[in-house]
Amino acid sequence: MAQPAVSAGEKALPHNLEAERSILGAILIRNDAFNVAAELIDADDFFRDAHRRVFDKMVDLNERGQAIDLVTLRDELSRSGDLDPVGGPAYISSLADGVPRSTNVEHYARIVKERATLRNLIAAANRIEAEAYTAQDEASVVLDRAEQEIFAIAEGRIRSGFVPLSELAQDSFATIERLQNVRNAVTGVPTGFADIDDMTAGLQPADLVIVAARPSMGKTAFALNIGAHVGTTGERTVGVFSLEMAKEQLFLRMLTSAAQVDSHRFRTGLLTDADYASLSEAMTSLSAARVYIDDTPSLGVLEMRAKSRRLQAEHGLDLIIIDYLQLMQGRGRFENRNQEIASISRSLKALAKELDVPVVALSQLSRAPESRGDKRPQLSDLRESGALEQDADVVMFIFREDMYDETPENENVAEIIIGKQRNGPTGTVRLAFLKQQTRFENLSADYQ
Fold first, then answer.
1. Most CB atoms closer than 10 Å: which of 68, 98, 264, 439?
2. DSSP assignment of 191-231, as one string?
3. Fold adopted by 7-157
4. What pTM value is reported for the model?
């Protein structure tokens, strides 16, 4: 990222030249210090131009497998014409002489990274301010670009490294002990559907779960049933991004489903006294639910990430539901829709991993099942991108035979086909589907 000007107005920009010199000097004394520093910073993080040039040449030497010392560094700078601009041979020699402790290079690198982040924030704020004054675009477009700038800086700060097995073993043992004490087969977020939870152990943190089906199979109803269950039990928080339906419509669907009231009678106002009582009870339950709905249309992953992080900070976050993936907008230019969906898919997986919550994304299917004798969907039917199959940790399909057969053998029964599960078995779970209430329920043992 390009460095801002030396000063912002009357104030000097954040920097620490002593830490910068100490990093360069430590590398000249101990070449292994380079790898420590390079994990945290790059050349653009240095405030002084001379230090950026010196570190850049150190990178070149390292990439060629050459030692980094006074002789090789001076030669590299001389050949590129940078030796005199950085201060000449005397300045290079002084770097190695002024290091407090070469073993503290990680601490120095973190100082430099912190100052660089602050400078980048100042530069971004200045650009955002200038664009806000002179913008030709709508405010929403300017705001979108502003969010992109800020989160690009945030992403630049996230650098993870190797973790030893000994540390992972300690964390895993703590998890094993917790599960042993709880003795619960559902280790993730429970869906409320017993057989699905038995097969998946619940929706796992950091997992991308794709729920796909042909139109009118009940994708939204299935997701809302899960969301309502999670939000009304166990003090968990659910964020729902509804790109297709308005939030008021979505709530009314949740209400009639929870109350088990015929949706047609509800829409036409032909409600009985029992219906009113059920709706009142469901209203009380949903009002206390920790479910938050955002119905912004054509949302991109960047905005979704910003909203999710805010929700997590303010209320906690245990599950994200997206209805539905194909209505999202990718960032940048793409040669075709497949590339755009692939980009969205990767970003959603990154979102799940970053926030450490399951992300359930509803997806359309291609028309391929319609042309087969057995119309049950397959992984190859995922619409517009094979990347969905690749990025997803779990892929569930919804199939209802009564959508194709007027007199099906199993009316009001839906199959939830788990076509992929990265860390578990695949198979089919049967649920009851109450069409009038647009509600899925556990199927009694007699019908399994």
1. 439
2. -S-HHHHHHHSSBPTT-EEEEEESTTSSHHHHHHHHHHHHH
3. DNAb Helicase; Chain A (1.10.860)
4. 0.65
